[in-house]
Design the sequence.
């Protein structure tokens, strides 16, 4: 009796595994697993093209996404470059622009925007007075200074041109961000 019961249980299990519904579900699951595996490989290929400049390395990354199914894309994620090529290019352009801005710290005239040297007292193009000279050492002084930093001579308020003091803020802006001279 137990042998007949076991045989009928195996027969019912055998019937379930060979039923049409189970075969269709199994085939559908296999199809979806293959589609998911191929789509992961395609994603690895597309992502590698965005991040890697060398076509041979893109091919190796794609093969890595294909060969160990489902594990290859995870391995690729661990070793892929952090930035895309576009992000790298944008970062390099931004760094170049910042370096140019830092190197372009030469002052310009607030009136005619001609580049001037830091020790000029007047603009050589438009004759705008940029600074006053120290009465003791003739060093160029900024309008708001109270004492000459070169010879420690106190600066009298009468020595400072009031127009120059009024345009000190304009001059500071011109020194920080020089404009390009037109012409």
Sequence:
């Amino acid at each position: 009796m137990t042998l007949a019961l076991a045989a009928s249980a195996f027969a019912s299990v055998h019937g379930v595994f060979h039923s049409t519904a189970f075969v269709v579900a199994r085939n559908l699951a296999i199809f979806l697993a293959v589609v998911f595996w191929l789509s992961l490989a395609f994603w690895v290929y597309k992502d590698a093209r965005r991040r890697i400049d060398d076509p041979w390395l893109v091919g190796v990354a794609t093969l890595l996404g294909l060969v160990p199914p489902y594990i290859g894309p995870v391995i690729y994620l661990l070793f892929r470059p952090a930035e895309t090529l576009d992000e790298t290019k944008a970062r390099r352009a931004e760094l170049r622009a910042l370096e140019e801005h830092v190197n372009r710290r030469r002052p310009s005239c607030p009136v005619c925007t001609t580049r001037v040297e830091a020790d000029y007292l007047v603009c050589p193009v438009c004759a705008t007075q940029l600074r006053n000279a120290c009465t003791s050492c003739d060093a160029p002084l900024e309008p708001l200074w109270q004492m000459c930093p070169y010879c420690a001579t106190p600066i009298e308020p009468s020595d400072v041109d009031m127009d120059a003091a009024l345009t000190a803020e304009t001059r500071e802006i011109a020194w920080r961000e020089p404009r390009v001279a037109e012409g």
Q: What stands out?
A: The chain has two domains: 2-86, 107-183. The longest strand covers residues 132-133. The helical segments are 2-17, 20-51, 55-66, 72-79, 85-103, 162-166, 168-176. The mean pLDDT is 82.
